[in-house]
Amino acid sequence: MKIKNFIIAILAMGAFCACEDEAPVLKEESKIDLSENNVVIESKGGEAAVSVKANCDWKVSTSEDWVDVTPIKGTSATTLITVAVDTNKTDKDRIAQIFVRSEGLETSFTISQAVYQAEPATPDNPDAPEVKNSIRTAEAFAKFINDAVDMTETDVWTVDADIDMEGAKLAPAAAFSGVLNGNNHRIYNFTVESDNEYVGLILNNYGTIKNITFGSADGKKYDGRTVISAVEGKGGNHTGLVAVNSGKMEGVVNFANIKFTASTTPTDYVGTGGIAGGAANGAVFEGCVNYGKLEGSGEVKVEFSFGGILGIAKLVAGDLVTVSNCVNNADIDLNVYISKVLMAGGIIGRTNFHVVIENCTNNGNITYTTEVAPKTWASFGGIGGSLYNGSEVIGCRNNGAVSSDLCQVNRMGGILGVLNSGGLIKNCVNAADVSVRQEAANANWQSIGGILGFQEKANADPEVPNLVEGNVNKGRVSFFGTNATTHANKLNIGGVVGMTSLKITVKDNENQASVTAVNNASGVVFAGGVIGAFYKGEGLVAEGNINSGNVTLKGNSTSNALGGVIGGSLVATNSISGNSSSSTLTCNNAALTGAVVGTNIGEVKDNKAAGIINGTVITAENVASLASGSGSSVAAVNTTLAD
User: Fold this and answer.
1) Residues 81 and 9 sit within 8 Å (Cβ to Cβ)
2) What's the maximum distance between 2 C-alpha atoms anywhere in the chain?
3) Which of the residues 119, 402, 412, 423 has an alpha carbon 20 to 30 A from that of 152?
């Protein structure tokens, strides 16, 4: 029996060992290794080899069709693949991604190639290929400017070196219709003297000018020499790096001084700009930057506009000009007498029809130092001076102080001075102070706002509304002066909008900064955390706005009014709802001081308020009674305590 059991045990052990011998072998993990991560190929083209070491089947694909790869697949072995690239005849450097993939596995390497810039033939290198329309020397650029008027849209020129013009004096090109690609090079140390009322390196651009810097040897600072001006006794009309742009200016950087001289008396508007003085239908400004100082002399007897990028866009109905991703870094301080109207902006001075200004930034301070004020009025804005008939400002930012000491009608805004006859300001940020200081006694009405100074008129087309939406003001807004105005428009100051007139919607804006008005004379002041005042015509819609900035009004008039949201709501059709104010409010006229609205004859309902009003803390118990001034003819309804 024992022997039988022993035999059974031996057989069982054999069976177990046999099972162990038949266990499956684990599959090795797939791997792909490349010998290179980044491959650089010469601009004139060539080939490169990359080793693929793999233990699995694989295939190759490319992100760009200008790369040729062989072979396009392989097996579990070490394989050499070849990438071939032709000459890079595009206008910019290029890069491609090469992918090597197996099931569930991917790796890659990059191919990069610079723009091809052929060397011209020289006595030392007579076999070099001829480069058509290549600009490499001062003589070549001077000839280009001289011949530009005869070029057509098929003529493409490239700047293939940085060029020191060695103090050359250039007469401007009357016109240019081709393509000038600067390849990010710099042309500097020259002057332009225009024997024309228009002033610019090119007087009329109908073509494309791109990727080029003027007036700087290193691309960082002004060369101290490059100036664009008129010869003595000339000038007086549009002035800029280009006098009038009707084409495309892309990636153009200006350091040159732009000098305006009022030597003629044009019958139309005049513009001076760092990139272009004027613009016509279809003009495009994309990614342009201005560092150039704007200077001026003489007396301008027509409406005058100046801007860091563009002076004026004078259009007709249906036209369009676009200004996008542009930056002004220059202070704008033009000491020239304007005997009519002055309009100035960090990006654009004036529009009269549809201009779209998008994602632009102003870093320069905007001011005006001439002792004699314009005869009628002035409008200043961090982005634009005055925009008319449906123009749009979207996603822009102002970082430069906007200020005036003119004893004249000032229409001042951190983003825009005047919005007239329809248009919009949307999703913009003002991060700098906006101020008017008038030491001398005067009687001019004023309108000052952190985003918009003055909105005037409605558009005849209901599809072209007046809209101020989604903007943020972070800059202090202030007025200090001795103003005895008796004008119906009074003196208005607001964290977002100074004064609105005729149908407009102001919604979802925020003021985060202080609003201060100090008037040492009898002129009436309306001050608001969001809007100074609205009166005239159809009503205002103000909703979803937030004020967290302190509002202070000091003055002599018993008609002064201050509100956490709006100082004076003076039209019965106004609708002010869903707004909030949480700040300290101080006013010399307690009877017209309200946590939401100072004086009111319209609809004010469903708003929120908190903070302190003339020393009294706003609470859930008193917020309803403090929502509007006690002397207001219509009380605010359903005001609750803000969080």
Assistant:
1) no
2) 134
3) 119
**532 pLDDT exceeds 90?**
yes
Instruction: Single out the residue of 71, 76, 36 nearest to residue 53, CA to CA.
Output: 76
| CATH number of the CATH domain containing 93 | 2.60.40.10
Q: Which residue, among 518, 433, 534, 509, has the nearest Cα to 483 in the 3D structure?
A: 518
**Segment among 268-277, 426-435, 528-537 with least mean pLDDT:** 528-537
**pLDDT, mean of residues 530-545:** 90
Is there a domain that residue 504 lies in?
no
According to the model, what pLDDT value does residue 141 have? 97
Q: DSSP of 481-540, one letter per residue?
A: EEE---STT-EEEESSEEEE-SSEEEES-EE-S-EEEEESSS--EEEESSEEEE-SSS-E
**Distance (Å, whole) CA 91 – CA 133:** 14
- Domain annotation covers residue 80: yes
204 in a domain, yes or no? no
In a domain, 99, yes or no: yes
In which band, very low, low, confident or very high, does the pLDDT at 27 lie, cut at 50, 70 and 90?
A: low
Question: For 281-307, what is each residue's pLDDT tens digit?
Answer: 999 999 999 999 999 888 899 999 999
Distance from C-alpha of 404 to C-alpha of 406, rounded to nearest angstrom? 6
> How does pLDDT run across 57-82, given as a tens digit for each residue?
888 999 998 899 999 888 877 888 89
Find the domain containing 42 and state its range: 32-113
Supply the DSSP symbol for 628: B
Q: What is the pTM of this model?
A: 0.81
Beta pairing partners, 413: 381, 449
CA distance readout (Å), 490 to 192, 377, 416, 503, 525: 46, 15, 20, 19, 6
Backbone φ, ψ for residue 563 (5° rounding): -140, 150
Total of domains in the chain:
1
Contact 344, 332 (CB under 8 A): yes
Paired residues of 311 in beta bridges: none
Burial (CB count within 10 angstroms: exposed 0-12, middle 13-18, buried 19+), residue 237:
buried
